[in-house]
Design goal:
CATH superfamily: Winged helix-like DNA-binding domain superfamily/Winged helix DNA-binding domain
Number of strands: 3
Order of helices and strands: HHHEHHEEHH
Shape: elongated
Number of domains: 1
Strand content: 5-15%
Radius of gyration: 21 Å
Helix content: 55-70%
CATH topology: Arc Repressor Mutant, subunit A
Number of helices: 7
Strand order of the largest sheet: 1-3-2
Largest sheet: 3 strands, antiparallel
Length: about 170
């Protein structure tokens, strides 16, 4: 296997950090993880665009669909999960409602609030985007054997649990 972008990056920057610790392996891993994250972000944006969604529309539908109650949520819960302000969430929901991808229904427990529900069209467009996104993910991760993928998942889980423990 030849050099990749991270190898070139490390070689270029190694000698610039005389007074700051620089670890080749940590820097290379960081650069590779960033590059992979960018690939997944770009493939998600490409899939969204291909089905006619803006990225924020896809992200909102995705968050709505991956809940314990798929396709159903309160605007507040969606806003919290997406890290969006309540006015920002209202704008997102207005756009999705105009497109016919969600509908607002009165809350059965609190007449002052509404629930958000994905429509049949919303579920369908989300599923088409997920299929395209899934193809890109499978193509990339298909470069690994089953054993390598299991090892990668074990190592990534070790990192994510460290992040979660520090939160």
């Amino acid at each position: 296997m030849g050099n990749d972008f991270a190898d070139l990056h490390v070689a270029r920057w190694r000698d610039h950090w005389i007074d700051i610790p620089f670890d080749d392996q940590i820097e290379a891993a960081t650069v590779r993880l960033s590059r992979i994250a960018r690939f997944f972000r770009d493939s998600s944006q490409t899939a969204s665009a291909e089905v006619g969604l803006q990225q924020f529309e896809y992200e909102t539908l995705h968050q709505l669909m991956i809940r314990d109650t798929p396709g159903h949520a309160s605007p507040r819960a969606l806003a919290e999960d997406l890290g969006v302000s309540p006015p920002g969430m209202t704008g997102r929901l207005d756009t999705l409602e105009k497109a016919g991808y969600i509908k607002r229904t009165p809350s059965p427990t609190d007449r002052r609030s509404v629930n958000i529900e994905a429509t049949t069209a919303g579920v369908a467009v989300w599923r088409r985007a997920m299929l395209l996104r899934g193809h890109a993910e499978m193509e990339l991760l298909g470069a690994l054997s089953e054993r390598e993928l299991a090892t990668l998942n074990r190592l990534l889980k070790k990192l994510t649990t460290a992040i979660e423990a520090s939160d």
